[in-house]
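Input structure tokens:
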């Protein structure tokens, strides 16, 4: 009797799921559990960004939205018979290898995408191609879980600055623009990273994709809606920045800053979203009772019948997928042990025609290299007064938390008196950028990376080199060199940096000598 009661108590839950779905769903849950346990640091890093970064707060709702999209399809979805599918293991292996590459190179965005790809591939492995086809949009929408967008900040800053200065001149306010700084009679305004509009653009991309799918059936209407959804936040952000400047001319900087934070930060963009949806409303063409998919048609489609030749019990596919995950994870553990030899001490050497000197008076400048094993910062002065500051960082390897090319590392340390002004032409093969302090002191910085025999300003090339090291077990250090010069001296920054680079006898060999690589 107790057993009968227990079974009777579970019946309503199990009866709600057709028999052919029960084991495959259990196997999918187990597969996801294996992936999340093995790749837990990746998920934890994503969750930290969702919770701590306002740019990605909306990502917290993506799993709920994906679940809702699946629920909308559930009546028709249950008419499909799920089955394991061996070829899905190829995609799962690809996702796991992608994670491996991101893990050994310390590239968080790659590991984030790889985790989502692996979760998607596990659906194909355990439930088969028919179910994946039926859930194509919910699975694709899961890509919005990846916290991506900060890479657009410099570009969006410049676009916003250009829009703002155009509107400022149009409204009759005299203004001068210098990079992302706009000088007006009311004061100097900076189109900072927080003002780039990336938060609104990323959120609008997620909202626009959802609305385009749920509200439209016409591909043309969807495309037009998405173009508007992506362009509108960029234009609106330019209007927001101009509005702050316009209000400051009559009400003062303090009032404008408060108004910007309250109205533009919380109300303005909500109104823009509402306006977009209101304007699109008359063109919605999806019937309210639309089922999104036709389960019977998908189940009987001839093309899927051909794929049934590769079907297999979902339990076996799960076991093979789990073995793949454990194998790649073990490879990653081994690859993480690969490290180059670190010298006990390094020093900045003498450079012909230049003398090491104390750092110049004025705003303090020091780049960021949080995970480096060695860091050097010094100043060189030539007889004619030319001055170049040199920053050198040495890394035994590249991994999460100690990447030379990570966001926020390099010439511009976040939360300091220095602000990014604009990109600068390359000198001596480096990546150039102008920086500015609140007291309008300008500084030019050129960044170089070196790994093996490669010297480059390219972060992706450095990451690829480190991937090869880790996977092959052959360790080589990574070095970062930043040459910088402050404007206003007897020699302009560009000339000073070019002369100094030439005096070293060649920056690649000079960087190697400092790090005692050769």
């Amino acid at each position: 009797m107790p057993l009968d009661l227990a079974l009777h108590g579970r019946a309503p839950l199990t009866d709600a799921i057709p028999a052919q779905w029960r084991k495959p769903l259990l196997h999918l849950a187990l597969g996801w559990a294996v992936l999340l346990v093995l790749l837990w640091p990746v998920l934890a890093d994503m969750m930290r960004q969702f919770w701590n970064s306002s740019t990605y707060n909306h990502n917290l709702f993506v799993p709920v939205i994906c679940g809702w999209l699946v629920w909308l399809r559930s009546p028709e979805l249950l008419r499909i018979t799920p089955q394991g599918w061996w070829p899905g293991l190829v995609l799962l292996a690809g996702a796991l290898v992608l994670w491996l590459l991101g893990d050994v190179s310390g590239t968080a965005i790659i590991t984030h995408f790889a985790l989502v790809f692996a979760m998607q591939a596990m659906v194909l492995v355990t439930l088969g191609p028919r179910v994946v086809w039926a859930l194509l949009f919910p699975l694709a929408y899961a890509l919005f879980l990846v916290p991506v967008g900060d890479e657009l900040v410099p570009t969006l800053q410049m676009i916003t600055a250009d829009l703002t200065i155009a509107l400022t001149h149009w409204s009759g306010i005299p203004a001068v623009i210098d990079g992302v700084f706009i000088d007006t009679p009311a004061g100097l305004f900076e189109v900072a990273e927080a003002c780039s509009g990336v938060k609104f653009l990323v959120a609008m991309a997620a909202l626009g994709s959802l609305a385009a799918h749920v509200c439209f059936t016409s591909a043309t209407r969807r495309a037009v809606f998405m173009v508007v959804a992506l362009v509108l936040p960029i234009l609106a952000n330019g209007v927001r920045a101009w509005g702050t400047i316009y209000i400051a001319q009559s009400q003062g900087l303090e009032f404008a800053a408060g108004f910007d934070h309250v109205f533009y930060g919380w109300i303005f963009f909500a109104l823009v979203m509402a306006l977009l949806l209101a304007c699109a409303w008359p063109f919605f063409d999806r019937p309210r009772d639309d089922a999104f998919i036709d389960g019977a048609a998908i189940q009987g489609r001839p093309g899927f019948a051909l794929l049934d030749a590769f079907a297999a019990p979902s339990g076996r596919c799960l076991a093979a997928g789990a073995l793949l995950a454990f194998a790649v994870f073990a490879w990653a553990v081994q690859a993480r042990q690969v490290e180059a030899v670190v010298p006990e001490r390094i020093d900045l050497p003498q450079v012909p025609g230049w003398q090491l000197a104390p750092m110049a008076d004025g705003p303090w400048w020091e780049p960021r290299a949080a995970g480096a094993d060695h860091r050097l910062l010094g100043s060189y002065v030539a007889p004619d007064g030319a001055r170049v500051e040199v920053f050198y960082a040495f890394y035994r390897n590249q991994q999460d938390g100690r990447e030379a090319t990570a966001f926020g590392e390099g010439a511009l340390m976040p939360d300091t008196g220095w602000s990014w002004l604009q990109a600068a032409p390359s000198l001596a093969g480096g990546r150039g950028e102008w920086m500015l302090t609140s007291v309008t002191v300008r500084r030019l910085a050129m960044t170089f990376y070196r790994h093996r025999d490669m010297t480059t300003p390219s972060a992706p090339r450095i990451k690829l080199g480190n991937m090869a090291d880790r996977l092959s077990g052959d360790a080589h250090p990574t070095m970062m060199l930043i040459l910088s010069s402050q404007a206003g001296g007897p020699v302009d920054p560009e000339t000073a940096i070019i002369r100094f680079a030439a005096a070293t006898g060649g920056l690649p060999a000079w960087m190697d000598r400092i790090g005692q690589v050769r």
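The radius of gyration is 28 Å. The CA atoms of residues 269 and 275 lie 10 Å apart.
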